[in-house]
Amino acid sequence: MQKRKEGEFSHIGNTQEARRRARREIRRKRRRRQVMAVRIVTGIFGLFLLGGAGFGLYRLGVFLWESEKGDGTVSAMQEQKIIETNHSEKPAIDEEFLTPNEYSRPGDELPEVTELFVHYTANAGTSAAQNRSYFENLGITGETSASSHFVIGYDGEIIQCLPLSEIGYSVKEHNFNSISIECCYLSEDGKFTDATYDSLIRLLGWLMNEYDLGISSVKRHYDAGGKPCPLYYVEHEDAWNQLKEDLREYIL
After folding, report:
1. Would the N or C end of the chain have less CB density within 10 A of its end CB?
2. Any idea which of 56-70, 142-156, 162-176, 193-207 has the lowest mean pLDDT?
């Protein structure tokens, strides 16, 4: 075996140590790159989460700001959403169909619906049930021919007296293309109570949706022959116009 000089051993040792340092440096750089990659991915993911949370917080803030504007009122945007949700829903209706008879429920088919007529009962302080009973008793007394599809009480209850597939005796020449709604009231001037008014808006909104009708289809009995019915809304044209405006806002 050839003997190496002392300087040669020192050179070899130095070379091996340099290689070890180089390998350690490579490993360190590789770990740094790995750590950096993990940090970048984590940072991007964190930004995504923070962005989503931030947007969610922004929307929550907008919602709260719109929901309560000092006076606790609901914003127009939210109110509109409530309207869109509710206007096509059928209101609570108590079905109490009249007994078939020739004076108030003849049973003739209602072939189409193009008009919705609003009436008042012309009898202040009487309830929806009492007016329904009046129609029912006409089948016994035969004193006249009269009926309505719906009667709304002064407390807002709605009684349905006739199926929507049958005519009522309400507006003479319009009986075969219309649905009629009688409204109870307390005031002698014929003005509807708030409860009656609200139920009327909901019922009209639902019927308009069911039959694909516009505001122009909603009429007073007065508009078909000149009878002062419903009295208050004939004598106060502005009140009738406001009712139609309230209905328009409700069904938007």
Report:
1. N
2. 56-70
Among residues 131, 135, 89, which one has the least CA distance to residue 250? 89
* Nearest Cα to Cα of residue 149 among 206, 233, 87: 206
Cα(79)–Cα(20) distance, integer angstroms: 74
- State CA 30 to chain mean position distance: 61
Sorted by sequence, the CB contacts under 8 Å of residue 167 that are 6+ apart come out as 106, 108, 109, 110, 175, 176
Q: Which of 187, 198, 182, 188 is nearest to 230 (CA)?
A: 182
Nearest-angstrom CA–CA distance, 71 and 63: 15
Q: Are 167 and 175 in contact (CB under 8 A)?
A: yes
Query: Would you say 151 and 168 are in contact if contact means Cβ atoms under 8 Å apart?
Result: no
Question: Where on the phi/psi map is residue 110: left (φ > 0), alpha (ψ -120 to 50), or beta?
Answer: beta
Phi, psi of 69 (to 5 degrees): -115, 60
Rounded-to-integer distance, Cα 227 and Cα 27, Å? 99
Give 125's pLDDT tier (boundaries 50, 70, 90): very high
pLDDT at 19: 46
Q: pLDDT tens-digit profile of 223-245? A: 998 999 999 999 999 999 999 99
- Top-level class of domain 94-251: alpha beta
Could you tell me which residues come within 8 angstroms of residue 131 by beta carbon, excluding any fewer than 6 positions away?
A: 121, 123, 151, 182, 184
In whole angstroms, what is the distance from residue 38 CA to residue 52 CA? Answer: 21
Query: What's the residue count for the chain?
Result: 252
